[in-house]
Structures are given as C-alpha cells and as structure tokens.
Amino acid sequence: MKKIILTLITIAPIFMVNAQANQNALLNDWTGPYGGVPAFTDYKLQDLKPALEFAIQERLTEISKIANNPKPATFTNTIVALEKAGKRYSQIYAVFGIYSANMNSPEFEPIETEMTPKFSELNNKYYQNAKLFSRIAKVYNDPATKKLTSEQQRLVWLYYSNFVREGAKADAKSKARIAQINKELAALFTKFSQNQLADEGNYYLELKTEADFDGLPDELKNAAIADAKDRKLNVMGCIANTRSSIEPFLTFSNRRDLREKAFQIFTSRGDNDNANNNNKTLVQILKLREEKAKLLGFKTFADWSLSNTMAQKPQKTLDLMMSVWTPAVEKVHADVADMQKMADAEGGNFKIAAWDYRYYSEKVRKAKYDLDQNDLKPYLQLEKLREGMFWVAGEIFHLGFRQVNNVPVFHPDVRVWEVYNKDTNKIVGVWYFDPYARKGKRSGAWMNATREQSRVNGDVITIVSNNCNFIKGKDGEPILISWDDASTLFHEFGHALHGLNSNVTYPSLSGTNTPRDYVEFPSQILERWLATPKVLNQFALHYKTGEPMPMALVERNGKAATFNEAFSTVETIASALVDMKLHLLENPDINPKQFEKETLDALKMPSEIVMRHRIPQFGHIFSDDAYAAGYYGYLWADAISADATEAFTETKDGLYDKEVAKRLNDYVFSIGNTIDPEIAYKKFRGRDVNTNALMRARGFEVQKK
Asked: CA geometry: angle at 556 spanning 552 and 560, to 5°?
C-alpha cells in the first residue's frame, strides 16, 4: 500500500516540563545526534496516554496565547508563531503514529480508541478559534503581506485557506455540528482500521500437506513454514492474510482450490460475518462526511475534498480516469483471452476467475517473453536494491548514506542511516528502514515523516522512514523480492527523498506537504530508475553467484515491462472510480456490497479482476480523510510522472541527464509546497503536462482527439 501517514497540524506549548525531573520519557525533548531523535528505548506504552493529554493541554495554551496577543496581528507574531510552535505535541503524536502503524497491539488499541477523538477535538478548537482566525485573516488581507517573500505569501495563503476550508467562516450552530462530526469520524476511522487489522491477523490459509506447497518458490515456502511456527499452528505452513503473502501465493500456487481460498480470505477483510465487519462503520463515515460537506457549503464531500487539490473538480478526475479505463479494459479482455487459451490447452474445464488471473498471467508472460518472476527474483536481493536506491539518490540528488548505530529504534528490525549532501558533506536528514512484516504492523508499504525539515526555528533536519512488509526467510539468507515489490521499494523511497531533499523555511510547506494529487509524483518518477541498466548491472546481482542480471534477461524484462499493465491499471482505477462515486453521493445511505457491484457493473468491470481495495477494506479512504475522494491521485500524479520521465528520455543521457535532474530537484523535490504545483511543474518542464505520456508509459494506444 503506497501511502503516506499524514500528521495533524501542530501547535506547540509555551511552557516546558523539567526534563530532568520528569518520569515520563515521552515528555522529554528529543536529545542526542541530529538535533535530537526519538528515545524509543526509554518509552513505555503506559506513559503514552498521559503524555498526549499533557501535550494537548500545552497546545491549547499556546493557541490561546497566539490568539489573544494584544498586539496587532503580523506575519511574525501570528503565522511564524504558529510555525515555531508544536514541538512537544508533534513529537509525541509522531510516536503515537508509529505505535499505531508499526507496533499495534491489544494493549495499544484502547489508547488509540480513547485518544483519537481527543486529537479531533483539539483540531476543532484550533480551527474554530475565532480570535485566531481573525488574526490570520488580518495578515492575509493586509497589503503589507504582498511585500513578503513568495514562500511567506504561500504560507499565509495556506493558513487562511485551511481555516476557511475547515469551517472558520461558518455560523456558530454549524461550527458546533462540524466539531461533533469530526469527533465522531475520528472514532470511526480508528474502528475501521482496527477491524481491518484484526481480519488481517485472525484469518490465514493453512497449508497442511506437502502438496499444498506445490508451485511455491522456496522463499515463500520457507516463510509459510516460519509463519506457522510463529503462530504455533499444528500445520506445515501458513499464508498470512496480507498483500505481501497472498499475492505471491496467487501467482505461483499450482493448487487452484487453495488459490480460491486465499483470494476469498484476502478480499473478504472487513466484510466477514464477525465483530470486525466494516460495512456499517463505513456508511456512518460516508453520511457524516456528506453532512459536513454541506455545512461547509459544498454539494458533496468530493467537492469539498478536491477544493485544495490540483484537480479542483471531481469531473476532471473522472475524465482522466475514464480516458485510461476504456483502453485498459480492452487490453484486459485481450490478455484474458490468451490466459483462457492456455487454461483450456492444459485441460482446465473452467473460466478464468479472479484467483486465476495472476497465475495464468505469469504463464502467458513466460510463453510470450520467455520470462516469469522467478527468472528475476534471484537477482532482486532486498539489501542490494537498497544499495541501488542509495546510488540513484547519489547520482540524481548528490545524497550519500552512512549507517549509524547510535540512534534508538522502535523494533530490532529497524536500521538507521544518516543522509548527507555529497558536495558539502552537510547532514540533511535521518532515514529509518523498517522492512519486514510482523504481527501488529499494518500491511502495505508507506513513508512517514517523523519530523519535517525547516529553518524557521534553527536549522532542523528531517527524520523520515520507509516501512514495508517483506517476508523474512531463513536466518543468514538474502531476502529475494519480486519486480513489483522492487518497484514499490523505489516508490516509497521516492517519498523519503521528497522529504530528504526539502530545502524550505517553514515546516508546513516542507517535504511531502503538497496537494494530495501531486504528492505521489516524486515517488512514482523514482520507480523509473529501477529498470535502468546502470542500476541492474550494479545491484541486480544473483544471490548465489554475485553475477549481474544477464543482458538478455534485462532485455526480456524490458520488452515485458507493460505486459500486465492493464491488470494493475484496471484494479487501481476501479478503486479510484468507486471512491469518487461514493463521495459524490448526496445521500450515502447505501448497501456497500450492492453499491460496489452496481458501480462496477455499470463500468463493465472485467469479471476476472476485483478492485485493488474493496470498499470494506479500503483503508486509504476510511482510516482517515487523507485519500478520501482522492485515490485518483495515484493516476493523476502518474500522468505527471510519465510526462516528467520523457523530459529525461528526450536527452542523450536519458534518466541520468544532469541538467534535467537539477531541474527536478530545484522545482520538485526541494521546494515542498512553497510554489503552486502547476507553476512549479511548468518551471521544470517548460510547459503543462502532456497526458499522452501516461498512455505511452502504460503501453496503451494514445487516443486521438
């Protein structure tokens, strides 16, 4: 799952706790190297709730002080004051987020359930503080603001527009209801996420005999055996109910009956007949969102959600999605026909089903291109690919990485690197790597910014992490991953580089704090470097021989690059279209299962594919508001990414052209949200985005107008 954990807006305390006398380590300032780092080895779960409650009260005091400043509102005493604030609360909240995503447990869940509505209540008091908004509005409307730097003007605009968007101009009755809705939503988001995590942990596929392992690569077989031992199951193996385990099983298992079982447990997450069923919860979320949008003056939640994005209007996103949907579906039908021929030739008396798609897709790939994932996997060692990512970061952004052991970590699996500019040797950030799946860690892959880069209150370097769910093998053996997983690894590292390259003054404009439908652009373009010969020759090394991937294999992989693109496009856009249509409802009192079926039927969704995220397990849009009515952003950003890639490939040096790389850094990776993305992209590219590049990148025919 390619998702960034987004932190709440932070407002800081005006008084400090005596760190030496304090018994709750979470309340202490971060100390140590790099301007301070989280003291994970000192933290205790039982201290988290009181630390958060203390920090919330501190934050309210700070809000009050800024709001009630008797001096006339200025950029410095209002906007900058808010930017400088937030240190303790943001630090403790960041640790809370790590517990939630990386170390969830039965002991943590009650804390999360109790505290999440309190975060929402705090945000309500912030956005609905009339005196504070009055001061922000005065700065926004002050003619003197036009004399500020462009970055400062952007910051003023951001504060003002965020407050208006959250209801600062609403009447008192509406404000009270909005506050209640936000509080209720926060509790429902937590419930949805906990239900999904429970179904991922409680359901699994048992492998009882040697025949149940038929077709599985050694690393998947070994992982299944290890998982069964970890769960203390009296069976030979176990396939966990996570994407990183289920998808390889669906790809390689020769047991069609077991593929169907694996598919069913995975696609039924949040939709089982148990206490973790998410259908009622998500309908409540939809109803509350719709009510809130109307209170804020918008026709639908989708209209409200897109009001601060590049797209602005839902119809623009639908137009883009449908322009890609039609050729993708046509290609899927052609691909399925090839699969059906192969299944028929094998004597299979069945129609290709959703649990057959990945399996027969690999067989067709092998027949067409003499290539399957197992040809590539021996060359795709996790640690070598990590080194390859570092090398790309050095070539494109002049960044270097040094592993350090003097930084506390939240789990033994986590390792840490300091990141520095190779030209100046200046340290620019700290990168944590948490690569392995484990109980209590949510599935998927994501980047997290534990601290934003800024210069408003000293030179503060960023702390970022990449989090994955790769399956551990036997001790001492290298972790081999699929090509898709390698692409995901580079993708999430792109988010990290967006933070590590940030070079701005104000934390609210730093790193990945960009419009949602732009934030995936830096991560998606970084995926393009994986397939370059320079990376493959140096880092795609056979785990036994150390030999680089043979050129013939590189070429076959290149020819097959867009082979299964139609499948991934359809499953992703199906989710994005359903997301948008859910949030365009003016009366979302629906039966989710019926709505999903009717919407997909109307789109003529191929029966052999399901949504990448079915509605009851769609954490992107129901675990918070970050991607609600925004899942289209992956496609929107990839249209930008494809066009930006062609800026490189149009040169003789391709993706390693130094001039284009400098522009990419100067106008994309380093500027955060200090410039409107459309303006920034024009500075990089010299023109607007050409969406035909997306069609070319995915191997679809460019539509003639």
From this structure: 170
